Each structure stands twice: as C-alpha cells, then as structure tokens.
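Example for tutorial group B:
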C-alpha cells in the first residue's frame, strides 16, 4: 500500500464513520474489466474496488500461469477427467443436487471423487440428463486436503485475507474451495459467509452471474421476510408473496469466461449458473475494509437467535451462553472466537511493525509473507480497522455478559497495545 492509498483509506473511513463498504448500484450497471496485470496495481484495486465495494472482472491473463489451467483442462478447453482421476481419484468430496431444495440450499452428500467423475461423464453422454439429478461438486477444501499441490496462486489483489490467515493459524478450517460441475449446475441466491468478499476463477468453462448490491436484497424478501431460493422464479412477480419486488432493480449480469476471475463485493447477494462444464476456484475473505461488515453481521445473527429463543424458552441466567452456542452452530463463530480472530490478525501486524519478517518465516507461512509484501502502511491500516471493531466489540453488552477471564490478553490490554503500536509506527 502506498502513502496516497493509505491517506485515501483513512479519509474514507473517517468520512463514513462506522459505516461499512458502500452498497450503491453501479452507474449504468457496468462492471469493469481489468485486462493487464502490469498496468493494474494492488493500490488501484484497493482504491477503486475494495473501498467502494464494487465488483470487477479480471481477464484470463491473471491466471495463465496456473498449473491447473494446463493440467486440469484438455486441448479443447474441457475438464481433463483422466488427469483429475489420477490426481484425486481416491478423495471424498461434497456434492450437491441442484434439482432438490433443502431449506434454502441444495442438499449435499459425500461421494468418492471417482464416482462423481463417472456420473459426470455419463451425464454428458446422456445429453445432460440423469435420474440422479444434476450433481455439483461444491465447497471442496482441496488446498487443505492436498497442501503439497501447487495448482493455483492467490493474486496479490486478494492477499489481505484475514479469514484464511486466522483459520490457518488455528489449523481448524479454511475458506478456499474448488467447484466442479456440468452444464446446467447452479448455486441458489445467497450472500457469502460472514458477508465476506469472494473471488472466483474459472479454470475452464463459463458462468453466468446475477448480482444485487448489498441492501438491495431487501426488495426481494417475501411477506414473511424470507429471501427467494431462485431470483428468476415467476413467483417473485406475485405482489401477494413478494410485495416489494417491483421496487427492485434488475441484477448486474456477468458472463465469466474461462480463465477469468470475478470479484464479488462484501454483502452482495448473487446466483450463479454454469453455462458449460466448469471447474472454478473460489476464496471467501475478510480484511480491514469489510471487517466491520462481518461484525455487523454477527450482531444481526445473535439478535435473530435471541428473538427466536425468547419465543420458546423462559429467560435464564444462561440464556446468553445458549444464544452464543446456537449462533456458532449456525455461522461457525461466536463472539469470543471473533475476539480471538481479531487478536491473531492484530498481533501478526504488530509483530511485522516491530520485528519485520525474515525470509525463513516468510517461507514457512504464506499469510505472513503476504502481509509483508503489502507493506508497513497496510499493517498500520489493518491495525486501525481492528482497533475500531475491537472497541465496538469490547463495549458490546452481549460480549460483556460472557466470562472474559479466559481471554489473554484482556480486550482492554490488547486495545492499549494496538494503539501504542499504531502511534509508534506513525511517528
């Protein structure tokens, strides 16, 4: 991050107060296409897309050096089933059935990868029909299952990735996924986990995206406050069911070609179709620009749990703990883990400012290497945003009801340390 971008980010968050990234629709519904890496810097992306929370598409030039684009794809641009079977045949993968609805998503099962590929080949041979329905390999943690493989590299624009930095540190989970599916497979209407950003790269195939800016999904809710499963369904035009649909604007539409990367802004709801047999790589990620969105999302989720539990359970001294437990089971995180998340990110930044990062540490930890590459000013920016959210968390009534004695350091001590590190860095 250069000094001009640092100054721009400081002014942006000062002028917008506590607000999260903007959610205004794009003028004319146009999505920018980024053609060349050599003329597009990290600061350009940060200034023009992360801060205003606008989508964009990166050309296939940004992924042309990925080994997966050579080895996973035939000379005709189709999935290379033979190579994939050699590499992953014994893996077990999550597979969704696009023809079925379970709550507001497609039901999933675990299948051997070789069984899924056998199905996929038969599905193509039968004119894209099967009694098993349209199956879609989704949310496969390939990087976690095969850490030794180097099938792609994260573009620098997406390298300030707090989610994966934290979950790598605690060795519990990650938010890096591979998707593989036949023509006609699709993902229903949704926003990404924690209202994170996402980037999605087509290794091969084509996708059609329908995107709504953050906040616009409110017009698509039914009379009970539920979002639609499919935003193209005719039911949405029925005012008795969807009373505000007529106030909504048409979605932004993106046709994503092979090799291209789509950047999905924080909190933007979307629906995605595979127009051809397609393989893609997707990361969800949070950073200093949208960590306040994540915090707002967690507060909304807890409030929803509290409303629901109050309907069927008498108030008890332990109710706040039960609500935290339910929220974690639904979202994957509770308030105390969110504190730990902020602490890990902050301490990594303080360490960089105080000690720098030697080559040995960089070679062992890709997340820390990425922090170092983005520079000292980016570390200061991250700390300033962490302090803002951590201050709000520390003052939150529901957080203060929890037993915080297990947190080390205490929120107050951590805040003091971070503020001192910022002051020292800016001297």
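The residue assignment follows.
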């Amino acid at each position: 991050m250069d000094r001009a971008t640092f100054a721009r980010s400081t002014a942006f968050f000062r002028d917008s107060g506590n607000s999260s990234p903007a959610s205004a629709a794009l003028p004319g519904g146009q999505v920018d296409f980024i053609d060349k890496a050599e003329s597009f810097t990290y600061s350009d992306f940060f200034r023009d897309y992360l801060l205003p929370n606008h989508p964009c598409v990166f050309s296939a030039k940004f992924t042309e050096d990925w080994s997966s684009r050579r080895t996973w794809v035939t000379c005709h641009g189709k999935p290379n089933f033979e190579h994939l079977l050699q590499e992953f045949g014994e893996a077990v993968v999550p597979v969704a059935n696009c023809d079925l609805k379970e709550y507001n998503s497609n039901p999933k099962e675990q299948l051997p990868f070789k069984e899924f590929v056998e199905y996929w080949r038969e599905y193509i041979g039968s004119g894209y029909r099967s009694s098993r329905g349209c199956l879609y390999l989704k949310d496969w943690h390939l990087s976690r299952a095969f850490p030794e493989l180097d099938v792609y590299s994260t573009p620098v624009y997406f390298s300030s990735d707090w989610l994966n930095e934290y979950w790598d540190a605690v060795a519990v989970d990650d938010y890096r996924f591979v998707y593989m599916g036949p023509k006609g497979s699709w993902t229903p209407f949704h926003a990404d986990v924690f209202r994170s950003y996402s980037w999605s790269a087509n290794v091969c195939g084509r996708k059609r995206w329908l995107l709504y800016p953050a906040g616009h999904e409110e017009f698509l809710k039914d009379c009970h406050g539920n979002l639609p499963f499919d935003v193209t369904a005719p039911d949405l035009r029925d005012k008795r069911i969807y009373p505000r649909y007529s106030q909504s604007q048409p979605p932004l539409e993106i046709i994503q070609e092979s090799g291209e990367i789509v950047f999905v802004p924080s909190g933007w709801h979307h629906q995605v179709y595979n127009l051809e047999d397609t393989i893609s790589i997707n990361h969800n990620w949070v950073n200093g620009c949208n960590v306040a969105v994540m915090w707002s999302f967690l507060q909304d989720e807890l409030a929803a749990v509290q409303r629901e539990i109050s309907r069927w359970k008498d108030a008890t001294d332990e109710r706040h703990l039960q609500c935290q437990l339910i929220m974690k089971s639904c979202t994957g995180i509770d308030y105390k883990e969110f504190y730990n998340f902020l602490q890990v990110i902050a301490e990594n930044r303080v360490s960089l400012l105080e000690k720098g990062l030697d080559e040995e540490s960089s070679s062992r930890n890709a997340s820390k290497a990425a922090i170092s590459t983005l520079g000292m000013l980016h570390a200061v920016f991250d700390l300033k945003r962490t302090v803002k959210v951590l201050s709000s968390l520390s003052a939150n009534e529901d957080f203060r009801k929890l037993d915080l004695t297990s947190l080390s350091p205490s929120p107050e001590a951590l805040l003091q340390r971070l503020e001192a590190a910022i002051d020292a860095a800016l001297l």
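The first helix runs from residue 3 to 15. Compare this with the pattern of hydrophobic and polar residues in the output above.
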